[in-house]
Amino acid sequence: MIDFEKYSDERICVTVPVTLPGGNNDVKVFMKRTDLVHPVISGNKWYKMKYNIVEMQKQGFDTLLTFGGAYSNHIHAAAHAGKLFGFKTIGLIRGEEHLPLNATLQSAVNNGMKLHYVDRTTFRKRETNEFLNSVKGKFGDVYILPVGGTNTVALKGCAEIIDQIDIDYDYICSASGSGGTFAGLVAGLQGDKKAIAFPALKGGKFLEKVIYGLVFDYTGKSFNNWELNTDYHFGGFAKLSRELIEFTHEFNKLNNFELDYIYTNKMMLGIADLIRKGFFKSGETIIAIHSGGLQGNIGMKEKVQKILGRKDQ
Questions:
Q1: Which of 139, 165, 264, 306 would staple 259 via disulfide (CB 3.0–4.6 Å)?
Q2: Are the C-beta atoms of residues 220 and 212 closer than 8 Å to each other?
Q3: First-to-last CA distance in the chain?
Q4: What is the model's pLDDT at position 2?
Q5: By the 8 A CB rule, do 53 and 62 touch?
Q6: Cα–Cα distance between 76 and 295 in angstroms, integer?
Q7: 252-277 burial: b if 16+ Cβ within 10 Å, else e
Q8: What is the side-by-side strand order in the sheet with 226-228?
Q9: What is the pLDDT of residues 166-186, one digit of tens each?
């Protein structure tokens, strides 16, 4: 088994108090800095991927095949993990090839990942037996890791985050894309405390079924101490507004570290809004998970500048 401590000391993922734009009132807010765990395999990607790497090697595979979009944090991290731990990587990318490659995909290529592009209709069928059989027929004997690195193996690593939080709290909050990180947190809580997921995509209600299934498959249990809040997607995945951008920049200044533009900023604005609305009560303590993804900010800069340049936003 790989000694992951040679590559990262998870104790550097400190839990720090944060100040929200507009103030926290009497609610204490902390952030678990999993973004610090590794400079490239950042945040939740490290926790999701480490036991999948162990499982892949245990089963005798030397190649990992996975999926993602053109700006995918997961693709970026998986490629670097392959280079770091010595296995081959293949990325099936949603959509058509665009040259020159963006920073995310160029980094993946630089780290040895072979990219193949899949049209959006076919990409939506990626979990069907027909599609998976075609992948094996084309690429041979490979370890297949789903979008976002989410499977029951990934939950084991994410569940460990709970044991690394060294202060008492009432709520734990996480942004959510594919549901795996949050499902791991729920599994780690084992029914204790309360947990809220903030989907970063529009129509995220479907994640309820996904998370329930992942947690049950991993633990054999169902828990009722968690919920989704789908009110803070800001129009959909990777969508931004002037309000969200200005909140993000103010948060960064107040706390001297960055949020990403796709996941954690939406969650933190949601937490701030729920504090103002009285959802979180005076004296309660919230832990928010910083899930990394800062590499994606490079690709979002043009969109940010465009929105800030519009007087109607």
A1: 264
A2: no
A3: 52
A4: 85
A5: no
A6: 8
A7: eeebeebbbbbbbbbbbbbbbbbbee
A8: 15-17, 28-32, 285-289, 171-176, 194-199, 226-228
A9: 999 999 999 999 999 999 999
**Residues present in the chain in total:** 313
User: What is the spatial distance between Cα 27 and Cα 287, in angstroms, rounded to a whole number?
Assistant: 11
Closest CA to 76 of 273, 262, 267, 276: 262
Q: Which amino acid is at 8?
A: S
Give the Cα separation of 71 and 108 in Å (integer): 11
- Using DSSP's 3-state secondary structure scheme, residue 71 falls into coil
Answer whether 0.70 is exceeded by the pTM. Answer: yes
Contacts of residue 31, defined as CB under 8 A and 6 or more positions apart, other chains included, come to: 15, 16, 18, 255, 287, 288, 289, 290
pLDDT digits (tens, 9 = 90+) for 85-99: 999 999 999 999 999
Q: Which domains does the chain have, with CATH numbers?
A: 4-39+155-308 (3.40.50.1100), 44-149 (3.40.50.1100)
Q: What Cα–Cα distance (Å) separates residue 217 from each residue in 37, 138, 212, 213?
A: 27, 30, 9, 6
Residue 5: pLDDT band (50, 70, 90) is confident
Residue 195 has pLDDT above 70, yes or no: yes
